[in-house]
Amino acid sequence: MLKMTLMIMMLTPTAMLLKPKILYTTMTSYSFMIALISLTFLEPSSNTHLHLDSTSAPLLLLSYWLLPLMILASQYTMTKEPMQRQRTFLSMLSSLQLFISLTFMASNLTLMYIMFEATLIPTLIIITRWGQQTERLTAGTYFMLYTLTTSMPLLMSILYLNNATKTPSPFMQITQLTSPETELLLWVACLGAFLAKMPIYGLHLWLPKAHVEAPIAGSMVLAAILLKLGGYGIIRMMQIMPTMKTDLFLPFIVLSLWGATLANLTCLQQTDLKSLIAYSSISHMGLVIAAIMIQTQWSLSGAMALMIAHGFSSSALFCLANTTYERTKTRIMILTRGFHNILPMLTSWWLLTNLMNIATPPSINFTGELLIATSLFNWCPMTIILFGISMLITTTYSLHMFLSTQMGTPMLNSMTHPTHSREHLLMVLHIMPLMLVSLKPELII
């Protein structure tokens, strides 16, 4: 484990010192090598030094797997920039990966909080320095203010827990606290920070802004990993905090399911491609929040499966949106139509990724949503109405996105470059894990 952390740390000086000719080749090769070595973390016997278990290992592996994909996806845009900016960008990605991996490896609540907040700095720099429009500063401000405001109560509760237990709170049950009122306050304070990070509907306004303004690597890491830090944090809080009745979580479950449906309806009226994918992330994370709050074995397994599945499928959708943007210089869906006639192979990737996004078998998305639907229905049969409506609208906007961008007569008359092998490799490395994990789901569930 320490070796892996040192390898990630060394990526930053590597990015700064490599010769310009071999910068992207070497960085991508190194990060792929780290991703392949990290596959051993799924074996329980390998997790002896830092705190890795069946909850954190799959998410850690997802973050390692996406680092080389982010470098691959950014290559076309970044090679046009000055060399110093390219080096800074790659070192920012490496430092962000370091903070993310240390969050998942943390052995106590205090360390997890510090690393959870440290991810804010590289992400903020990536959004504000490499964003595509002038609104990127507003997006960065939203992102920072939402995270910091909701994190302050979490910090206060961690300090209180450390003081009550006379130790940095490890991930084990704290049985005795002073009163039920204190427990309730601690629960609400702890949940606030993680629910805003996921984000739950109502605290979600920073996400579409951040996604629309961020470069492709920023969008990928936001959708695939940073949203999952919220779910991971809630699962960890369930392990530490005194057990509460599900009645406390009832407002959150209702809000997350209703919010998922509202986010799906918002998707139907989006014209911006990246904004649509960002709102679809909010709806999927709503299902994950509801599943975690129920606290049954099936629902937690479903939440874990859907988090991993969403990490790959939303990242793939952002890569496809970026591929379209590089050729048309617009993200408005009606202006990007007709790609089926020009780049038919890209249309195949769009169809496959959209089918994954609406949870078609044999993807792991289907496994996750099936487990969540079963546990929700078992908890309260009425939830199947909201879940069914949500699934119906998800299918509608996914097909709408596919038809709007691929079918019809091309609106733009400019010359379109053919797709590169790099872009096809990027899609293969997103889609293959989704299909293969469903053959052996016990790796992540």
TrEMBL record:
One example of a Gene Ontology biological process annotation: ATP synthesis coupled electron transport
One protein family per Pfam: Oxidored_q5_N
Protein name: NADH-ubiquinone oxidoreductase chain 4
GO molecular function: NADH dehydrogenase (ubiquinone) activity; NADH dehydrogenase activity; ubiquinone binding
Keyword Transport set for record: yes
Function: Core subunit of the mitochondrial membrane respiratory chain NADH dehydrogenase (Complex I) that is believed to belong to the minimal assembly required for catalysis. Complex I functions in the transfer of electrons from NADH to the respiratory chain. The immediate electron acceptor for the enzyme is believed to be ubiquinone. Core subunit of the mitochondrial membrane respiratory chain NADH dehydrogenase (Complex I) which catalyzes electron transfer from NADH through the respiratory chain, using ubiquinone as an electron acceptor. Essential for the catalytic activity and assembly of complex I.
Catalyzed reactions per annotation: a ubiquinone + NADH + 5 H(+)(in) = a ubiquinol + NAD(+) + 4 H(+)(out)
Cellular component annotations (GO), alphabetically ordered: mitochondrial membrane
Membrane association type: Multi-pass membrane protein
Top-level taxon: Eukaryota
Leading EC class: translocase
PANTHER family: NADH-UBIQUINONE OXIDOREDUCTASE CHAIN 4
NCBIfam families with a match to the protein in the record: NDH_I_M
Family to which the UniProt record says this protein belongs: Belongs to the complex I subunit 4 family.
UniProt keyword list: Electron transport, Membrane, Mitochondrion, NAD, Respiratory chain, Translocase, Transmembrane, Transmembrane helix, Transport, Ubiquinone
Record-annotated membrane-spanning stretches: 57-76, 143-164, 184-207, 214-236, 276-294, 300-321, 342-364, 376-403
Domain NADH:quinone oxidoreductase/Mrp antiporter transmembrane: start-end pairs: 106-393
Species, as recorded: Oligodon chinensis
Enzyme Commission (EC) number: 7.1.1.2
